[in-house]
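fold description:
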Amino acid sequence: MVWSTIATFLRFSPIFVLFLLPFSVTFHVLLGDAPGLTNLLRRVLHTVVFLTGEFDYEANIASSQYTLTYIMFFLYLLVGTVFLMNLLVGLAVSDTNEAMERAT
């Protein structure tokens, strides 16, 4: 059952990355990180941490001077934390239902 859920997540991961990378790059540009690949990779990691609910709003978003940052953050809240996380939960639950049907 665990392997089935992991396989489902691996099939879903390209879509997950396609939603995550544009937000990471946008936050990298809007929040004024220093240019460079290592700082971009840190921002990608930071965006993944955002998915766990650790937004650190005061340190990251509230200090920004651009209105677009607030708009992108709101979109990220909707797409990342609501849509993607609920989709992952739905995929895990559907795998559980399949396992329950196969159980004796």
Summary: DSSP finds four helices and no strands in the chain. The mean pLDDT is 82. The helical segments are 2-30, 37-51, 57-60, 67-102.
